[in-house]
Input
Amino acid sequence: MRREAITAGITVAALSMAACSAAEGGGDDGEASPDGLTPVTMGVVVTTSTVPIYVAQSEGIFADHGLEVELESVQNFAAAAPSLLNGQINFATAATAPVVKAIDQGMPLLAVAGTSATVEDPRAEGNQLVVRTDSGITDIVDMAGHTIGTNAVGSGPHAAMLASYLRAGGDPDAVEWVVMPMNEQVAALESGELDAAVLAEPFTGMALSDGHEAIFSAYREPGYEIMEPDEPYVVLLSSESYLAENAEVAGRVRDAIIEANQVAAEDPDLVIELLVSEAGMDPDVAEQIALPGFNGVLTGNEMQAIGDAMYEAGMIEQPFDGSASIWEP
Output
């Protein structure tokens, strides 16, 4: 277990060599395979937030757009980014916060489409501050003097929670953040090692079933809204070089993901089925979790919202331009 200062950022320095070599290779050249489909490789973190990609695969949406997509499971954006920048994969999924951090540090990346989005009801959001009922934490500012779990300092939910805490007048030095995987956070809540945890589904639901309480939405808490309803907080992105050299293919990928989001939004049963078959989720858990919204269209506002929160929290060094982080064909 690793304890981090509240102002620690995401480091992408290890990606600098990959970024330098990104200009040398454009990755896939967009040539069709023998069956007439264009091969594309995607690095995907398999979660509720990326299920539209599996919808596009299972429902033939990629094929309808002339694409033969190979999906590679990756642990997180940091693991996928070097391959993305070197052209070994063409696209990858990531939460908006690490993308903002990477772009702030000079990585030549652009977001292409969304794969999950916020919802209207703050209590129906999967990204929540979950507290032990005996913790004494009833509002965001009460995190002071307590031990709070997060899966990564600088993740989207962590950045949003920290920005809200600072807006409420909280002392950034008064919170002890503990970095651990979300499944371990659920157990640490139960044992009392953590007073609260910033969780996402399915771990939010697991913690609530243990009797803990969700008190604060990371993105949509009334009075602290970081994002508007239906704004994507997980995106599909690519390198600037690949997008410049394969604009027509990238356009088809974007259109396919937008269509898949629409299908996911209209068919929650299909989403649950894919969470079981592709993410390996227990069927009973999949039936009970709070599903995200699904919106594939990016405007730049969603990146701006997270960029502003991260700048307020001291996680990036300069104001962020959300519109400049979106690919436009």
